[in-house]
Amino acid sequence: MENSDAKSTFGEQCYALLKQVPRGRVTTYRAIAHAMGCKAYRAVGHAMAVNPNPVIVPCHRVVKSDGTVGNYTGEKGKKEALLQEEGIQIKKGKIENFSDVLFDFAKN
Q1: Which of 7, 96, 102, 108 would disulfide-bridge 89, Cβ 3.0–4.6 Å?
Q2: Per-residue pLDDT for 106 more than 80?
Q3: Active site residue 38
Q4: pLDDT, tens digit (0-9, with 9 covering 90-100), for 36-74
Q5: Catalytic: which of 59, 63, 83, 101?
C-alpha cells in the first residue's frame, strides 16, 4: 500500500483517511481502498464495522459506491439519521446528489 506507516494497522490507516471527510460529505469503501493504494474494499468495510471510536472516526460517512447507504452498527436507520443530521439528503436508502457530496481524496 502506498504511503502506509509500517506501525499503523490497516484499520488505523482507514480511520486516518476517514477523518479527512468533513461533515456533510461522504466517501466510499472503494475510495478509501484506492487512497491506500489497494483494492481491499471488503477489508475497509470490515475496518468500519469494528471501528472502536465511531464518534471520533465517523464511519457513518462511508457508503457504497452506488450511493446506497448500507449498514451501521446493526441499528437500522441510524446511519441515515446521522447523515441527514449533517445535511445529506437520502431517498429510499440512497444518497441524492451523490456526486455532489462525494469526498475526493485526490483533490483534498
Answers
A1: 96
A2: yes
A3: no
A4: 999 999 999 999 999 999 879 999 999 999 999 988 877
A5: 59
Establish how many alpha carbons lie within 13 A of residue 101's alpha carbon, considering only the half-sphere containing its beta carbon.
Answer: 25
In angstroms, rounded to a whole number, what is the distance separating the alpha carbons of residues 51 and 54? 6
Q: In the numeric block, which cell numbers belong to residue 44?
A: 475497509
pTM for the whole structure:
0.90
Q: DSSP secondary-structure letter at 38? A: S
For residue 28, give the C-alpha cell. Answer: 466510499
Q: Quick one: average pLDDT of 23-33?
A: 97
- Report the CATH number of the 10-101 domain: 1.10.10.10
Q: Mind giving me the DSSP string for 12-62?
A: HHHHHHHTTS-TT-BEEHHHHHHHTTS--HHHHHHHHHT-S-TTTS-GGGE
102 grid coordinates: 462525494
